[in-house]
Please model this.
Amino acid sequence: MSHTALRRVVIRLLHDASMADRLARDPDGTLGDVDLSAAERAWLVAVPPDAWRTDADRPRRVLAALADEFPAAARLAPARRDAFFRSPHFHAAVQSRGSLAGAFGRHLSEDADPAVAAVARLELAAARVRRAPGRVPASPVGTLRLTPHAVVVRVAEGAADLLDAVRAGRAPTSLGQTDRPLLVARGDGGDVAIERLEDALAALLERALEAVPAPELERLVVTLGGTSEDAPGIIAGLRDDGLLV
Model:
């Protein structure tokens, strides 16, 4: 409904001063893709741009809360962090009622610096598993899938060490030239851990991003170097560990 769209446009204007300036210069271009009535558009256009800036601390408060969940990437790229409210990710998240934390993480993960991008991807994966529902529904009978409490992330070697160093306030470490798979997983107590994965296990878990028949996963174990005798036990072990559900 248009009144819902209007509220979301107001939120965007309160956080992005550049949007308020664009609205004054080019209202049709600024609001062209938003479902608003003619009266609502007229009301927005009639508001002076400076009126949207009356609480200058509002964007800083929201940004500080977001940076708490992405401390390493935000620390490595302060200019990128501060540009979030001007980004398409922010505006799309607000207008479509998406996750603001997810939008912030995607914004940071697109930084031109590979170190920032790698760290942001790990922090984004942690934010994702942290928000996964506590109770995970079972997969359809005869199938298995990767639990929403875990994500496989392929980032440059050394990314996890860099993340730890920046979060601890130590000097940043360097990245390698080769991507390596990492598992970002939430434990029963809610803590999120990052651990190295063997290539074969990473490929197996990535195949299970959607529900897959269990026999297919067992055949994949063999393709990846396991034996047909060991395959059922390997899959059962991953179920017992809670990685496959």
